[in-house]
Amino acid sequence: MPKSKDIPLPPLPADTHGKPKGNRYKRQFGVIVIVKDEAAQIALFDRLTAESLKCKVVNT
Predict the structure, then answer these.
(1) What is the reported pTM?
(2) Which of 51, 16, 45 is nearest to 32 (CA)?
(3) Distance in Å from the first CA to the final CA of the chain
C-alpha cells in the first residue's frame, strides 16, 4: 500500500491558499458495532468511553 505522501494530489482550485504544510494524514483503525436500538447505543458508548476509548456515534 503506498504512503499518502506518495499519492499525487489533484490540482487545487485557483482561489485556495495552497497545499497544507506537512502530512496531516493520520492512520486510524476502528470497529463498527451494530446495536438493536438507541438505548443500547447509549449504553455501549458510555461503557467504551468510560474505558478511555475514543468513540464516535453513527446513525444510519
Answers:
(1) 0.56
(2) 45
(3) 30
CA distance 45 to 60: 16
Which residue, among 33, 29, 27, has the nearest Cα to 57 in the 3D structure? Answer: 33
Q: Which three cell numbers stand for residue 27?
A: 492512520
Contact 55, 45 (CB under 8 A): yes
For the stretch 29-52, pLDDT in tens is 999 999 999 999 999 999 999 999
Q: Write a three-state SS string for the chain.
A: CCCHHHCCCCCCCCCCCCCCCCCCCCCCCCCCCCCCCHHHHHHHHHHHHHCCCCCCCCCC
